[in-house]
Every structure is written in C-alpha cells, then in structure tokens.
Amino acid sequence: MKKHDTLVKLHDDKYYILASSSYADDRVLTLNYGDTFGIFDRWGDIKQFGTCVQGIYHQGTRFISDMELEINHYRPMLLSSNIKNENEMLSVDLTNPDISDGHNVVIPKGTLHISRSKFLQDGACHELIILYNYGSDSHEMDLEITFDSDFRDIFEVRGMERNKRGMLKPPFTSANNHIVVSYTGLDQIERQTNLHFDPEPADIKDNKITYKIKLEPLGMYSINCTSVFSVYANPVQFEPYFIAYDKIRTGMEKSKELIAEVFTDNEQFNNWINRSKNDLLSLLVQTPFGSYPYAGVPWYNTVFGRDGTFTALETLWVSPNIAKGVLLYQAARQATKVLPLQDAEPGKILHEIRSGEMAETGEIPFKLYYGSIDTTPLFVVLAGQYLKRTDDLATIRTIWDNILQALTWIKVYGDMDGDGFVEYQRKAESGLANQGWKDSHDSISHENGDLASFPIALCEVQGYVYDAKIQAAYMAQRLGYNEMAEQLTIEADDLKQHFNEVFWDEKLGTYILALDGDKKPCRVVASNVGHLLYSGIATPERAAQAAKLLMSDDMFNGWGTRTLSSKAARYNPMSYHNGSVWPHDTAIAAYGLARYNMMEPAMRLMQGLFDASLFIELQRLPELFCGFPFRRGEAPTAYPVACSPQAWSVAAVFLLLQACLRISFDGHEKKLTLYKPMLPDYIKQIRISNLRFGDELFELEMIKNEHDLGIHVIKKPEGWEIVTIK
C-alpha cells in the first residue's frame, strides 16, 4: 500500500485518495520518533476539525485523539510555534487573552507567558508546560487539560468504514496521578493510553485534569505531562522529562555521524542539505538488522520496501550503513511461500508492513504485503552497489541466498508470460491494482486516456531488472562464481537489446511507458524514462533523444520533472501521478542524465529543486507538489495531502549532489573517482567531511576556479587512490 490519504472504495482502486481538505489549511505541526508520530495544531493542542487527522499515533493506532489546554476556560493566544531544527521538539509560546470573572478583567491580556515543549520517544509523548507571570500583581487561575483516546486504526482515520469496532473503556485513575484509558480491539489486543502528571493535579474527573495555580509577580509554575502508549497492556514506566530528553539528545549526537557532512559557501544550500539530513535522521528507525528509513510522516511512518531501497540508493555514497540496514531487513522478510492475499511469492521482497487492529484482523492486507513489482530487482541493485561502495563481502555472503532467490523470482514469477519482461497483476481483489512506484489506479494509460489492461510491463522495471543482473554478475564474480557472472552478464545484454527493440517508439521519440496485457504499447510520455537513464538500459543515442523530451516544456515545469506530459490525455497537474512533480523522481532523472554525460540538463533539474526548496517551509521538499508551470517569484503549488518529511524526497539532494560531482567508490580497488565533476553556478566551494569507508574517513574540498574545479584531498584512508578525470 502506498501514498494514500482518505480511503474509499472507488472504481478499481480499493484505496483511492479522497481529500476533503488540505493538511496545509489545518497548519499542523508533526513530530515523529520510531513507531510513534504526532499531528498537532499550532497551539500544541490536538483538535478534530478539517480532515480530523490530528492525534498521537503509535503502531498504526491513534492513542490520543484530543488534548487541549485552557486557562480559566479561555484558550490561550498563540505567539509562535515551531519544530526545532533537528525535528526532536515542538516548541510553543502562548499568552493569555483578557480573562474576566464575568464582570471585570482579572488577568489582563499578555500577562502570562505559557511555554509548551513536546517530544516523542520510544512510544511516549513528553510535555513540559511552564507558566510565568510577568504582571505586577499575583493571579489565581485554573489550568485545565482535557483529553480523549479513540484508538482508531490509522486506515479508519483516513476514511475506511468499519461495520464493527472493539470495546473502549472509560478513563480511570490509578495510583500516583496515573490515568489509564484502554481499548480491546477485534484482534483481542488491549491497547492503553497511560497519562501521568507531575505535580499532582488538584482534580481529575473523567477526561479533564485541573490545576489550581497561584502565581506571584515574576512567579513560575511547571507541569510535566507524560503519555505512554502500550500494546498488549504491557507494564508502563514513566520517565522524567529531562532524563528522557537527555537520552534523545545523546542518541541524536551519535546518529549525526551516520551521514557525511556537506558544507558549501552558499548558506541557502547549506540550509537545504542540513534540513534534509536532519529529516532523514528523524525517519531512521533502529531494527534488529540496523537502521531502516521509514517512508514518511504522517501516513507512511513504517517500513516500505521501495521507499527504503531508493532512500538507501540516494544516500549510499554519504551513508552506506543505511543500505546495509535496508538489505538485512528486507532479506529477513523475504517471501518464502505463495500467498495470494499478500501478493507473496518465493523470493519476493516486501512492499509494506503495517501494524494496528485492521492489519491484525485482516481487514486490510498490509500486515506483511508484497504487492510491488520493483522492490525485488531493486534489492539486488542495492546489494551490488553497496558491495562496490563498501567492499563488505561478508554482508553480501550473508544475504547471497536471498539475492539468488530474488533472481529466481524475477525469472519464475516476475516474467508471467515468458516474453522476457517482468509484469504485474494482483493476485487478490484486496491488493493494489498498480504495483509500480506510480500506484494510483489511473497512473498507467494509453495515449487516448484508456487505462492499460493487466498484466502490465512497466518500462522502468525492465531497467531495474537489467541493472539487477549487472549488479548480481559483479557480486557473483567477487564471490568466485565466474560462470554465473558470465551468464548474468549475457542475460543483461540480451534484455537490453530486447528492451530497446520493443519499448523504443521512433515516432514518439522516446521509450513507451509500458506494455499492457495484450502487449499493446502505452504510447505516453512520462517521467519513468528518467529511471531508464538511471539504470543504464537505454542506448546512448536513444538516451539523448529521450532526454530532449524529458526536458521539454511539457515535462520540465521549471521546478522538476512532471510525472506525465502536459500533452497527455490524462494530464492533471493536481493529480497524484499524472502530472505532479516528485523530488525523488526528478533526482533520479538528474542522476540518469549525468550517467549519460548530459550535465547541462542534470544541473537544470538540480537548480529547479533547489529553487523550489527556497519557497517551501523549512526548505523541506515534500512527497510531491503540483505540476503547474513555473511562475517567477512564486512558490510551487502545494499538493493538498503530501507527506512531509518523506524519506526519498529529503534524500534527493544527496543524489543530486552525487550527480553533479559524479563521485563513485570502488571499495575493492580502493579508488574514489570524480569524473568530470561540476558545481552549480550558486556554489563556488564545497567541503565534504566524515565520508566513511568502514572506520576510516575521507575529507575533500572543491573550489571552483575560473576554468576548472580545484580538488583538494584533506584526508583519505591509507592505500586509497583519488582519481580525478577532468
């Protein structure tokens, strides 16, 4: 399952997006940590209006659906609110309105400062509330916090109707200021919201907590509220606010070492890449197999196979440990049986993992779901590139059987009709209809707008399979399986030739989008071609032709590459996959262009996304934005329900930078190569440090001179050669 907001049954798509209002209208702020994320309003409250999506969610369930703070029954006035730069803290500054006793103003406006600081950690939300009296008189007040827990499944919040729910018990107060709300779902799992207040409130009644506070002039009063979310009613331990926050900070400092540091002479570019790094770190979750990037907040705060793999590929040169965690996790979850409801087949790599009541009961098929056509070849691609980058042959040996099983899946199950191409068709009605990265129900069509029939062979998937065979041949050769390496190389060459015979359309001047179930070509110009350049399956001559269309006005809107040409029958710049711009898609195209030595258009794509970032809040590229044409001095048009941060969007800047520097590693040969590197016009100097090869470090500096790019090697591991080709 991928990229869905409000869900209803419509047409052939069981999980169609129905957006009744925009997240942007709600002006929400989000926090995320591991399996927990929160959607708050600017006051730091949780209120249900608009899309009714605010709340704190944990493991696929909304554990807090309402939490509001008032002073003497008045809602405070907002001064400011923001998420701190490293995404760990929501900070809110409030003051009081004129507060009357019914006759007179007893606390004049602006007398009290109310500070709220929230962060998430390990299935808990910690909040510190501080009141400060700046008035010259003492004031008495009631501070009230109301809360509610509806325990709705995330898919239910997003619009799926349910005929029946489990049992919700009313709040009860246990010892030590501890309030418990519990829900037993149809899956027979008990989930609890546990709230603890320090100091003890004056009154706790149902879902309202009241403090009676007297503040002298310049007096201060603080309250610590901790919410812990438990599944299976596990014992709850409440941790003091500052101890929990110290742990967060310590972990963040350690995690910074995971990704190389990039510093340039352009402050705005530095802000973009630092924001991207912090966003990516906030999405990394520690699993038993290493770090795995969750797909995005709010609705994809879980493992997705395709997103995790692309994020690892985008960041491989600056953070190879992410790739290692992704590979080991996916290998451990590789399918071993034919399970039609899960679209699982032996050797297939997962698409999505979900927790929550509806996943446990089977109301949705995504508890462990395999309905994507591309994650399996991309798994092999990532493994080969990881070995080239790190020379970590031990890890490849560990997952070699998984790689072989993935290759077998491509031959046995992926190529459904034996025509040499990999196709998809869901095995059960509950599964996803389209199973490429563009998985909207209407994303694959013919030039007249008719939807393609199944099974469908997407162009980019053949590119991934080609690359997978190339990478598998390299790994086989490194492991000493020379005959296998030769055979895989032959298969890759044959596929490339066959693909270019069938998928190239001379009249269209580019590769077709797909073959439908009747082997009819989908003669549509789409961004999928950029993925063909990324994989290397295009011939140089045809890559150059395809690039012209990719960069034409109907495809490049000034900010990035449209998913679908504006001349296409189904073009809609406000759609999900039929004319919108996705940053990761644009970055992949830029890297592909650079691969074929087309640096000028590659740099234009990088410029477009950089310019877009300058208009977007926090310089955080969202999941996607609308594909309307560039308007000078205006921001790109927001897509109403785009997720942000989204892992493969925030990681795009690293792939763009790799595309312009054309930096590559050969860990076995101990060679770092910069092939005709370039810097965009807005960067004159760049320094890259903490660039890791195992426990050893590279540090490079590049300075743009009048006629070339000067490269200074400040630090490199012993025995390594730095090769610059200008």
Automatic annotation (TrEMBL):
Record-annotated Mannosylglycerate hydrolase MGH1-like glycoside hydrolase domain positions: 307-611
All copies of domain Putative glycogen debranching enzyme N-terminal, residue ranges: 31-224
Domain of life assignment: Bacteria
InterPro entries: 6-hairpin_glycosidase_sf (IPR008928), 6hp_glycosidase-like_sf (IPR012341), GDE_N_bis (IPR032856), MGH1-like_GH (IPR054491)
Protein name: Amylo-alpha-1,6-glucosidase
Organism: Niastella soli
